[in-house]
Amino acid sequence: MNKKMRIAGVMVAALILGGTTGCVSKKEYVAKVEESDTLRSDYARLQAENEALNEDGRALRLKILSLEEDIAQLRQDKTNLEEISQVQADKMTQEISELREKVSVLEKENSRLKEENEVLQSKALDLEVQKEEEVFTMKRTYDDLLEDMKSEIEKGKITITQLEGKLKVNMVDEILFDSGKTTIKPQGVKVLERVGKILLNAKDKAIRIEGHTDNVPIGPELAKTYPTNWELSAARATTVARYLQEKIGIDPSFLSGTGYGPYQPIASNETEEGRAKNRRIEILLVPEEITPVSRK
């Protein structure tokens, strides 16, 4: 029973008592009045306290509701964070998987490139050795030609040059051919035989024979066979190439003959001396770069 109910009970009891006795003394009356005032005061105070308690209760209930909402929000936030964390974890797992796959691909590519690099280094080493052998062969051939052709070189009939891996033997045409002819004369055979034997030892080298003339037009009789200097120079180059093949034994797959006519002069055609220099056969010894299928 709360205070409010107890006060109400006391007041009822007082009224009943007064009614049963019929009358009371003034002193008793005053005491009853004072007691009644006290009771009313207590009742009002208790009522105010009760209202305050009710107000506190409402505030507490509101606070509880707010706290429950906060708890629910925190639980939801926790769930969301867990979901986000899981999504992030899944994303990171996927990224790690992709990175591992890329690393695997890069490692394979690196291994392939490493193998290719080793092959290229091996080829480069082989080429370096081959180049050194070619330089040595060219140098030896050059020295042999200089020694063997000393007399013709001193007479100005032959010049031998070596430049950028190429060796050139330049012979004035009068050594090999009579004027307007394409048959090698005996003196020319002897010279060409000496040159050919030295070239025979230069293995795996392309030998290009080039025919050149001055710019004096072909005479009417000779023009029946060789319409221009171009045909004459080509025929002489081919004759030398055939001699090196048939008489010296040089592999024909390494030989070629080309006629340039008067179109690559090395001196002026205005003088006899210049024209004599332009009438020439050049034999070029160069590294063989393209190997035909038949020689593989």
Summed up:
With 296 residues, the chain is α+β, with helices and mostly antiparallel strands. It has eight helices and five strands, in the order αααββααβααβαβ. The chain is rod-shaped and about 185 Å long.
Describe this structure in words.
67% of the residues lie in helices and 11% in strands. The protein is α+β, with helices and mostly antiparallel strands. It has a domain at 135-295: 2-Layer Sandwich (60s Ribosomal Protein L30, Chain: A), CATH 3.30.1330. The protein has a 5-stranded mixed β-sheet. Strand 1 and strand 2 (166-172) form a beta hairpin. Helix 2 packs antiparallel against helix 5 (186-200).
Question: Which key terms come to mind for this protein?
Answer:
5-stranded mixed β-sheet, disordered C terminus, 60s Ribosomal Protein L30, Chain: A, alpha+beta, 11% strand, 296 residues, 8 helices
Strand order of the largest sheet: 1-2-5-3-4
Largest sheet: 5 strands, mixed
CATH A-level architecture of one domain: 2-Layer Sandwich
Instruction: Tell me, rounded to a whole number, the average pLDDT.
Output: 84
Q: Which residue ranges are poorly predicted, with pLDDT under 50 across at least 5 consecutive positions?
A: 290-296
Helix content bin: 55-70%
Q: Assign the CATH class of one domain.
A: Alpha Beta
Q: Which oligomerization state do the chains in this entry correspond to?
A: single chain
- What percentage of the residues does DSSP assign to strands (E)? 5-15%
Q: What is the fourth-level CATH superfamily of one domain?
A: OmpA-like domain
